[in-house]
Amino acid sequence: MQIRQWISIPIAFLLAVCGAPLAGAADISLLNVSYDPTRELYQEFNAAFVQYWKDSTGQAVKIQQSHGGAGRQARAVMDGLEADVVTLALAYDIDAIAGTGFIARNWQSRLPHNSAPYTSTMVFLVRKGNPKNIRDWDDLARPGIEVITPNPKTSGGARWNYLAAWGYALSKHGGDETQARELVTRIYRNVPVLDTGARGSTITFVERSIGDVLIAWENEAMLVVSRLKPGDFEIVVPSLSILAEPPVTVVDRVVERRGTRAVAQAYLEYLYSPEGQALAAKHYYRPHLASVVAEYAQQFPEVKRFTIDEVFGSWAKAQRTHFASGGIFDQIYLDR
Amino acid sequence: MSDRQRGVLPGFGLSMGFTLSYLGLLVLIPLGTLFLKMAAMSWSHFVEVVLSPRALAAYRLSFGAALSAATINAVCGLLLAWVLERYYFPGKRLIDGLIDLPFALPTAVAGIALTTMYAGNGWVGQHLASLGIKVSYTPLGVVVALTFVGLPFVVRTVQPVLRDLPVAVEEAAASMGAGRLQIFFRLILPELLPAAVTGFTLAFARGLGEYGSVIFIAGNMPMRSEITPLLIMIKLEEYDYAGATAIALVFLVASFATLLFINALSLRVGARARTG
Predict the structure, then answer these.
(1) Could A330 and B234 be called an inter-chain contact, meaning their C-beta atoms sit closer than 8 Å?
(2) With a threshold of 0.80, does the pTM exceed it?
(3) What is the predicted ipTM?
């Protein structure tokens, strides 16, 4: 029994030490609730914004970050997590928050480019030398290929992955839904693990070496290739992918109550500034601002991208048809 | 009030009041809100959700894996308790302390460690893979994770009983000509059984509710390696609160019924062990 105490004392000590820095408070604080792969971007962006805000107003602001699968994050906000701003993977999750009255219904028109300060797309990450010769979406459906992608029920990125594959099949087969369903079904048959978020899938593929191909956010794939494991992986750009627009917005009810609207608004607008855009590009998100686009032109390959509205009408429709309970994604698993 | 009505021990009102409000705040009220959330659901929708093939597959996996893990733990736990109580060897205290680690270690850490070890390219996984056995990302992985988190229960419930069992009884039996197996099965095992069943129940209950370690090793495929707690989480992340609550409720009632059944069983086993 003494040994139990010996173990618990250092554990309690560790917890106390790790917990202490969280307790410090600044003048104003913002909580940015975000999705999975934006950790690195916002770490750097927050520091830049804190400096910018201090220089322009003299006010010290402290920014906290929370990351996870987009669905979980949105639900946390609805359940009362005091997010001043949300920066999520797709509009549907912010719509869901808006549905509970926390955010104005017209949120998406409040900022330029559908409130998406940066865009991205879905690409393939394969192992060095592309041993399974994966070139396009059809290759993911080949027997014997293991595909890693998160669960579209819980991950925003996974929904983009799924819809990108669907849209590719539609365009290839002249809009034939049966063919699209066939392709997507065969791809998901090749998925051995469904993680709940994009970062989880990246870890499964990169650290645990499971699978032949990871369908990933372009920014996540570039992060792996250039910073995490240079030389071990390659990016394959499919012939057609989806224009992913991860949107941002202020959570009205929270900023009203906490009196943080001005700083929260400035925080999001700073994402559209040359500095913000450059940081987004540096972290492999595709910028809008022409000067930054030109500067980073080398980094981003040409990708043909379709928008969700072109192919699926709207997020609400795509969600209802594909990801709702009993939707096509559920049917794929019931059919086995 | 007369002393006769009060009973022998003082403080019944106070302690009972505390017990009820304590259980109320921690257990009954949170569970009660489950029923409240459910009220919005129509009966047919409820049935459709809780009996959907995917939910049934999840219950099956959760109960099956928890039962298998608890069974493994019952057998191995008895053995561990035996070794720790009956033999003396260097480092015994250290091993005794290790038994509790699954309690102290955050389950997510355990899950990640087990997944890495048992993945197709892990230390253990690669040897199993050459035998054609896959552990990580299969239902077998779930059993492994639940066996880990349930390890301490049987050991800790059996140990004190074994400690109190006088060695003299065994020696007496031996001197009267009982064989070793006979001593174990007729004398020791009946004494240990009630404690082992209690430990089994605890390990089983723990396994039913376990989430943190399992989601890493299970693979989380609908219909195949998706445990019920994960299905509930997924429903929540789909903003389907009613569906999540319905499944939680069914799972809760089923778990409670199972636990009651095992407890009744252990009382019986205990009674038989004492009389027989």
Answers:
(1) no
(2) no
(3) 0.70
